[in-house]
Amino acid sequence: MSGGLTALGDSFVEGRGDDKIGGGYRGWVPRLGGQLGLRPAAVRNFGVHGATTTAVLESQLSEAVSTRGALYGVVVGVNDLVSDFDADRFQRNIRTIFATLRAGGATVFTASYPDIPARLPVPDRFRALLRERFVFANSVLAEVTADTGALLLDIAVEDRWARQELWTADGLHPSSLGHRQFAAGAAELIASTTATTVAA
Fold it and tell me: Domain SGNH hydrolase-type esterase, which positions (predicted)?
């Protein structure tokens, strides 16, 4: 099926923090699809808990491209930053993901990384190190999105994303309110920066 919204990434994309009655998660992906007027069948979510940029390259990207989506959303990288971090690999993976998705002419959007280290229960020295990594990662995203023409929802500079009610107790995942806020921000970004019709 051509058209629609396809999302790739980690648990932020999977929808963790936005529990559904009866089990599972809703998250910002179907919320955004609804705001764009897409049928549920035209919204595909490949997000997986724990996914790194390498995992997206190896396990999500080719299948996502095969959907021939008109719109792709990608949020991934936090697991790289907090665990097995390699700056060169991170930068290379991010560039490959966005260049591949943009090669077909689709609209692609992502988001910068907010100050997640501020909420994590880690020693101050490690928090400082994590913040350096997050600053680096945001610079990579800014450069790659500019180079490829992808859209960047810069939530790292939005004060509202420091509000506790937008996050779950673990400090890593958005709350239900956070997912709704992200979907609204993404819809506004898409509407204001592209005239592409995401047809279902």
Answer: 7-180
Q: Identify the helix (H) or strand (E) that includes residue 143.
A: helix 124-148
pLDDT (tens digit per residue) in 8-22: 999 999 999 999 988
Domain ranges (residues) in the chain: 5-193
Q: What is the CA radius of gyration of the chain?
A: 16
Residues 6+ apart with CB under 8 A from 66: none
What is the distance, to the nearest Å, from the Cα of residue 189 to the centroid of all Cα atoms in its chain? 14
Give the C-alpha separation, 153 to 109, whole Å: 7
The closest of 88, 98, 75, 11 to 48, measured between CA atoms, is: 11
7 three-class SS = strand
The answer to whether 5 and 36 are in contact (CB under 8 A) is yes
Residue whose entry in the numeric block shows the structure tokens 């390699």: 86
Q: Give the span between the Cα atoms of 15 and 165, in whole angstroms.
A: 16
Residue identified by tokens 């990207």 is: 61
Distance from C-alpha of 98 to C-alpha of 140, rounded to nearest angstrom: 12
Domain 5-193 is in which class?
Answer: alpha beta
Tracing tokens 């060169």 back to the chain, one arrives at 88
Q: pLDDT tens digit string along 23-76?
A: 999 999 999 999 999 999 999 999 999 999 999 999 999 999 999 889 999 999
Q: For residue 28, give Cα distances in angstroms to 31, 43, 126, 175.
A: 5, 11, 30, 10
